[in-house]
Amino acid sequence: MADITADNVAEAPARHGTIGVVIPGYGHPQFLSEAIISACTQDIDQPVQVVVVDDGCRFPETGKVVANLMERFPGVLYYLRQENTRLPGARNAGVRFLMSIVSDLDAIFFLDADNRLSPYSLRRYREVLGDDPLVGWAYPDISFMGLTWGEEGFDTRETAPQYSKLKHLLGNISEAGSLVRIDMFRQGVFFDETMRFGFEDWDFWLTALGAGYVGRRVQHAGFLYRRRPESMLADSRRQEDELISKMRRKHAALFTPRHVMRLEHSEAPYFALLFADSDDVILTSDPLGEGHYLARNEFYALVRRWHHDRREFFFPASIVVLTQAQWQQLQAQPQYIRWLFWALKELPGTIHRWLFESRPRPYFEGLPADTPDMVNSILHVTAEGLADLLRDAAADEGAALPEFVPAVFQTPEALLSGGSKEAYASLFDCLKALVAEALPQRARVRHAGRRFAGPSALACRNVLVNDICAEEQRKPFPTATNSSRTLVAVDQDTLADSAKCGHFAELLKRLRDTTDSILLVIERGTKRDLESLHPDLWMPLIEDLVMLDRVPSGLEYRIYLGRRIYSLFTLKSKEDGAILARTVDRVITIGAAAFLEVLGDARQHGVKGYVFFDSIFADAGPLDSEDSAKILAFEHAEELVVCDNDAMSGALSAQGFPPAKFVKPQEFFDMLESQ
């Protein structure tokens, strides 16, 4: 071993600066001294500066307690008194005071007057905070004192063993008693002083998330939280719905469907692709996106952990068992993959075998239970189905797999072909191995004084993701991408007309210059084979294809300005359309497509809807046109109508359509290119 000299010793890391502690004081003077002393006597090699912000406390004892302790901790403890601003204003005042007097401020800890720290706490917090500038704060497991569940006067609550943005959107997983990097405040992240009635800390962390920061958990933080029967938190629970609604409006960008789906893909992927002929497992929420790779034994460990703690840990909601060759075949026709995986999500039941057939009209449906096995199939098991398999195996090691409910996905060229009986049998063997290897051997042991009390992992998916990204009792479309996406909706009869389809293909080519990908929704009424819709013209220009059913126009209508407005979508198709619209940046209907009925829902989620209504797509003249009547009726949901026919736009304007909403095709494309 070489001698250690000044030349070969790595340069020591730079010494961190001063840690600030802000203690708001309003009431509780009987506890305040404990909080101050615990902050001023920290065992840490960094300087500590503590400020008590007397927020107009009505008890004179508050000021007396601080005055007495300032003599004990000169140059460390400071006292501010101000008119009452409630907790957010007091914390901000303390932060600004410390920033004004401490030149090397490194981080700030928030300690309420009735809580306290252990001697090692700030040192432990600072170790965990680390030096990654994107880690904005370190939050604790919370040890409760006062009113507790613990036999010995203490119990500990774990809110998020691993930090999760997704969980933080559903509930507050970071106690205000956290250490915050000073750069967060320098970037303008402060407490919202209008949050005067609770949840001000949750709102603060959401602001930090929006600024690009994340948190990191501190185990054994030594943070002691005094639980009392009545507190500001208890009061906030009485106004919970109103406060949460306010935060969602304020932090709307965090709650958009596309952002939530990206978080799900990053932190809680919906699908696990389990390969029968490979050690790889892919976790993903988007089958066209980049997945997370695990080794088979790592996935087994994930199953065991989830089986013990389903509330605490994320786990894929669907397991797809297939071979590498089958996965490559599916990827060879990428336009159908997301539609297929959406069908997997939506099919009722917990355990399925999906068959793939060649049929001229793309479609999927459930099949009778007695449908024979086909070698060109994959297996699909939901998390609930896997739990049932594990339970049955624990009760009977020789238990056979149950019957798999059949379903079919059909396309003009079957997504899977050329399979063998051996490859198909290997799927069942792979699933049996999963159950055998992942079967929990013993229950997980948790200390009696510790409990998980954070947002449920399952609720994150069922309450947060589904509520934001799908319709009631429905599942989101499986896409999670940062790229720009445009949904184009067109009636199949338009594509069946060769002249219109050629014009449509040119339109798609121009759109491709303004967006990264196109989701094409084809509305079908009468049965038409896909080949009759000239797919060679438009299929290479799109990323996703979904077909939605529409009904004959005479079945249902409403009257608007004396003219019939036909409802063309089935109820399911309207829900499908609303879900699809939440996954894109804009929606464009070709003429008065049925998708017009969805634009209002899309607008509520920040997705603008446009109607391309130039002469070739108009069905008749401006006064007797069913299309023009429908465009007029849905004007409130339409951002712009692209129209090159002055007579049409003039007639609609005369009936009340705002003239400013009409735009020429070239102006429309210029606008898209500039966005």
List the helices and strands and how they pair.
Elements: E1 18-25, H1 29-40, E2 48-55, H2 60-72, E3 77-82, H3 86-101, E4 105-110, E5 116-117, H4 121-129, E6 135-140, E7 142-146, E8 155-158, H5 165-170, E9 179-181, H6 182-186, H7 200-210, E10 214-218, E11 223-227, H8 232-237, H9 240-250, H10 257-267, E12 271-275, E13 280-284, E14 292-295, H11 296-308, E15 318-322, H12 324-332, H13 337-346, E16 351-358, E17 363-366, E18 377-382, H14 383-395, E19 405-411, H15 421-438, E20 450-452, H16 457-469, E21 485-491, H17 492-496, H18 498-512, E22 517-524, H19 535-538, E23 544-549, E24 557-560, E25 563-566, H20 571-581, E26 586-590, H21 599-604, E27 608-612, H22 626-633, E28 640-642, H23 646-654, E29 662-663, H24 665-674
Parallel strand pairs: 1-2, 1-4, 2-3, 6-10, 7-11, 8-20, 12-15, 16-19, 21-22, 21-26, 22-23, 26-27, 27-28, 28-29
Antiparallel strand pairs: 4-9, 5-11, 6-9, 7-8, 12-13, 13-14, 15-18, 16-18, 17-19, 24-25
Helix pairs in contact: 1-2, 10-16
What can you see in these coordinates?
Its EC number is 2.4.-.-. By secondary structure, the protein is an alpha/beta fold. It folds into three domains: 237 residues, Spore Coat Polysaccharide Biosynthesis Protein SpsA, Chain A (Alpha-Beta Complex), CATH 3.90.550.10; 180 residues, no CATH class; 190 residues, Glycogen Phosphorylase B (Rossmann fold). Strands 14-13-12-15-18-16-19-17 form an eight-stranded mixed sheet. Strands 3-2-1-4-9-6-10 form a seven-stranded mixed sheet, sandwiched between helices. Strand 27, helix 22 and strand 28 form a beta-alpha-beta unit. Helix 1 packs parallel to helix 2 and helix 10 packs antiparallel against helix 16. The N terminus is likely disordered.
